[in-house]
Design brief:
- The structure holds 2 protein chains of 2 kinds.
- Chain A is of the alpha/beta class.
- Chain A has 11 helices and 8 strands.
- In chain A, 42% of the residues lie in helices and 11% in strands.
- In chain A, strand 5 and strand 6 form a beta hairpin.
- The model of chain A has no long low-confidence stretch (mean pLDDT 96).
- By secondary structure, chain B is α/β, with parallel strands linked by helices.
- In chain B, the strands form 3 sheets. Chain B has a 7-stranded mixed β-sheet with strand order 3-2-4-5-7-6-12, with helices on both faces.
- The mean pLDDT of chain B is 98.
- The N and C termini of chain B lie far apart (41 Å).
- In chain B, helix 1 packs parallel to helix 7, helix 8 crosses helix 12 and helix 9 packs across helix 10.
- Classes of the chains: A alpha/beta, B alpha/beta.
- At the A-B interface, helix 5 and helix 6 of A face helix 3, helix 4 and helix 5 of B.
């Protein structure tokens, strides 16, 4: 196991993050069960193993900051404070969902909390985030925009065209966007090495004069420290920045990715040694604020909360037929 | 009423709305320093500065996507596409994001975005630069698709677009920028989804839009000599589509010809013809005729190109056929 960075975050915050990580993990595991039971339809992409990245980054933002995310969007939405019942209800296709059941797993939105959505086309949301960042400066604010996407998006034209615009507009201080690459090693089943001519993804932002770096995406404290510095800088300068976080998904790409022929069990096991929950638990145990009993309490609390979310989703009505033609147009 | 060109109608509307609403900003290729390929944005960079008149790289996917992001955050971007042919690299952004994000967010966001520029055939521009994309965009719920044929409608529809809440596919026509016409003064708007009876008549309804309207009017002039009175309708907007006005006219004339520049299959004329059959089947005295472009990529050679796109004579022939 890699040596962990010294802790600079208050221990209460660490404990809170631990609770959040455990809760998100339990939530994602529940969605997989609900999918198998036919309660959740369509596609389901969970972020099991990747939770430290959205938690670390979104912990550094202000409530009035905004973000865009790919279809692997449950954890981003949960850590931003959206009611878990509404998230689960959305996955269940219910009226009480974040989007009245009209978006589903890939399209969680909570605009009141700056969540401008999950998007289903790889790379397709990245230009939106760049334009949103421009708008924030145009409106004379110091708000910032975070844009989360996977390593798969790094080879899309959308990323490169958007990054070029961000580089250009950033020169004038008009593009406070943070590109957060969630490099989980695989775009579906194709590894970064097999997909990217330059597998060091951060370095590709050099082409657009966007400062960039790579960081560990499994240790939430590391992610947080990097994110805090980067978000502050972007807020101050109005210039874009890219962070490639090295992370891993323990689950398949989607619910249909059962056999995972592109990787072996040993690789998954190696990465499990760096499970973000495990790493944080180690810190907390070393700090003497977590023992078996507390860990058990956190687990029970998380399970209860997940079951409450399921109960809410189950009880929520289906969207009525008149919802079918609503929300197509605004005027 | 002031007399002005289609181009001036567009430009003056942009100026009026930008003066009125600081949220309106422009993006596009060569709209600033170069003043716009068709000079619709002439002088606007000087007037509003580079933060509101943004010269973009040749990067439609990027800047149209960015404009959608601006709209999500409350701005009112107007994108100029140099021609609509160049919108296709951004089709994913327009169709998958702009058209749908209100719906899949459960109504949490709006995309008040206008994308405007010339659509349709040029002169000897060959296959990649001569085509009409209205039925392509018109297929998608969530978009508005409008096709002004006159300076007055250019102004009125653009103003409606700039004050609405939805993404608008604003299809101009390169052959129309220099066309002059009367334009009402003041805060003139034309609602979407309201066709215009441009020329009343009692023998046959001729439905057209964009440049085809002018050909239909010329054909109608010609047919007067044969004692035929055409009622010429300008759809003005394809989504929403005003079938009420079309059906009301056909119920009086009992005959219809629908004209479009684009390819025949799955085109706007097919949609209008189907709508006529659904509403007026028992009142028709002849099958509906369609006049369309030829089902080929646009050729370069002038003689072949002339065979490709509808002209006045082909419209007149179609009218004669439905009157037989």
């Amino acid at each position: 196991m890699q040596h962990l960075q010294p802790v600079t975050v208050p221990v209460d915050t660490l404990l809170e993050w631990y609770r959040t990580l455990v809760f998100c993990r339990r939530f994602e595991e529940q969605t997989e069960r609900s999918f198998r039971r036919g309660k959740i339809g369509g596609y389901l992409h969970v972020a099991i193993g990747q939770e430290a990245v959205p938690l670390g980054f979104l912990s550094t933002t202000r409530p009035d900051d905004v973000f865009f995310v790919s279809y692997r969007d449950h954890v981003h939405t949960l850590v931003r404070g959206t009611d878990p019942g509404a998230v689960m209800a959305e996955l269940y296709g219910k009226l009480g969902g974040t989007c009245k059941g009209k978006g589903g797993s890939m399209h969680l939105f909570d605009v009141a909390r700056g969540n401008y959505g999950g998007y289903g086309i790889v790379g397709g949301h990245i230009p939106l985030a760049v334009g949103a960042a421009y708008a924030l400066r145009y409106q004379g604010t110091d708000r910032v925009c975070l844009c989360f996407f996977g390593d798969g998006a790094m080879n899309s034209g959308a990323l490169h065209e958007a990054a070029n615009l961000a580089g250009l507009w950033g020169r004038e201080g008009m593009c406070p966007v943070v590109f957060v690459v969630e490099n989980n090693r695989y775009g579906m089943g194709t590894s970064v090495e097999r997909a990217s001519a330059v597998p060091e993804l951060a370095r590709r932002f050099d082409a657009y004069d966007i400062p960039n770096e790579r960081c560990d995406g499994m240790d939430v404290v590391t992610v947080y420290e990097v994110a805090r510095r980067v978000v502050d800088q972007v807020r101050r300068t109005g210039r874009p920045y890219a962070v490639e976080t090295l992370t891993y998904r323990f689950s398949g790409h989607g619910a249909a990715d059962l056999f995972q022929p592109y990787r072996d069990k040993q690789e998954v096991e190696r990465w499990r040694q760096r499970d973000p929950i495990l790493l944080l638990e180690k810190r907390l145990r070393e700090a003497g604020v977590l023992d078996d009993r507390t860990a058990q309490e956190v687990a029970s609390w998380a399970d209860r909360r997940v079951q409450e979310a399921v109960a809410f989703a189950e009880a929520s009505p289906e969207p009525p037929p008149e919802e079918l033609y609503r929300d197509v147009y605004g005027s | 009423m002031a007399e002005m060109t289609y181009r001036e109608a567009l430009r003056s509307t942009l100026v009026e709305e930008m003066d009125r609403d600081p949220r309106v900003l422009l993006l596009g290729e060569d709209i600033g320093v170069y003043q716009g390929t068709f000079r619709v944005t002439e002088g606007l960079l000087e007037r509003y500065g580079p933060k509101r008149v943004i010269d973009t790289p040749i990067s439609e996917l990027g800047f149209i996507g960015a404009a959608i992001g601006m709209a999500l955050l409350g701005l009112r971007p107007v994108v100029e596409v140099m021609t609509w042919n160049f919108s296709l690299p951004a089709a994913d952004q327009i169709l998958q994001n702009a058209a749908k994000v209100r719906y899949f967010s459960g109504g949490q966001v709006s995309v008040p975005l206008v994308i405007r520029g010339p659509n349709g055939a040029g002169v000897q521009l060959s296959a990649q630069h001569s085509q009409s994309l209205e039925s392509f965009y018109g297929h998608f719920p969530g978009l508005r698709v409008v096709t002004p044929a006159t300076p007055a409608d250019a102004k009125g529809l653009l103003r409606t677009a700039l004050r609405g809440q939805d993404p608008v596919i604003f299809l101009e026509h390169a052959a129309l920028y220099g066309v002059k016409g009367p334009v009402p003064e003041g805060d003139y708007t034309v609602p979407f989804g309201k066709a215009a009876v441009v020329r009343p008549g009692r023998h046959v309804t001729v439905v057209a839009y964009s440049r085809m309207l002018h050909l239909a009017l010329a054909a109608a002039d010609e047919l007067v000599r044969e004692g035929v009175e055409c009622e010429v309708l300008d759809l003005r907007s394809l989504r929403p589509l005003d079938m009420d006005t079309v059906a009301e006219s056909v119920r009086r004339t009992h005959r219809a010809v629908v004209v479009q520049e684009q390819w025949p299959l799955f085109g706007a004329a097919a949609e209008v013809a189907a709508g006529i059959y659904e509403r007026c089947f028992d009142e028709l005295d002849a099958p509906v005729e369609r006049v369309t472009g030829a089902d080929v990529p646009a050729p370069y050679a002038r003689n072949l190109e002339k065979l490709t796109f509808p002209d006045e004579e082909r419209i007149a022939q179609a009218v004669r056929r439905v009157l037989q």
